[in-house]
Amino acid sequence: MAKSYGTVSAEQKLKMSGLAFVQGLASGALPLNTIARTLGYDVTEAEHGRVVVTLVPTDAHLNPAGTVHGGLTATLLDSCMGLAVQSTLDAGISQTTLEFKISLVRPITPDTGPIRAEGHVLNCGRRVGTAEGRVTDAKGRLLAHGTTTCLIFPA
Per UniProt, which keywords does this protein have (predicted)? Predict the structure, then answer.
């Protein structure tokens, strides 16, 4: 199914479990957010507590030094980790990032080829969820990693 971009209405999202929402993003049944279109990333896998976001870096992502801007890597990690937390939540419950930390391990360039950001929930309680994420290349080399803390609240 071809991916579309936009937002899911609050009414529709309220009726969906977090897992159904994130799986809808991955399958194309629901629109990806518009920053995904701007940056060129995709939500490609979603299961309870785990989400994968993929991207092929291009010249459009470069910083003045000629490598992919760290903000792109941060966005991929924030997305995969936050959506991993979302995938564990019941209908009518939402989350937002309170803080996240990333470490950039290797430079990313257009020559790196496809990259994958995979988020895994570490713990999810009634008010706070935590997750970790890893960005790897097609050879499985670690490019960046991070952690997040998300606030959980009634939508």
Answer: Hydrolase
61 three-state secondary structure: helix
User: What are the strands, taking DSSP E only, across 58-141?
Assistant: 93-104, 115-124, 128-137
User: What's the full length of the chain, in residues?
Assistant: 155
pTM of the model: 0.96
CATH homologous superfamily of 10-154 = Hotdog Thioesterase (3.10.129.10)
pLDDT digit string, tens, across residues 48-83: 999 999 999 999 999 999 999 999 999 999 999 999
Distance CA 14, CA 91 (A): 6
Residue from 83, 94, 98 nearest 49 by CA: 83
Whether residue 8 contacts residue 22, with contact meaning beta carbons closer than 8 Å, is answered with: no
72-121 pLDDT, tens digit per residue, is 999 999 999 999 999 999 999 999 999 999 999 999 999 999 999 999 99
In whole angstroms, give the CA distance from residue 62 to residue 57. Answer: 9
Residue 131: CB atoms within 10 Å: 31
Largest Cα separation within the chain, whole Å, is 46
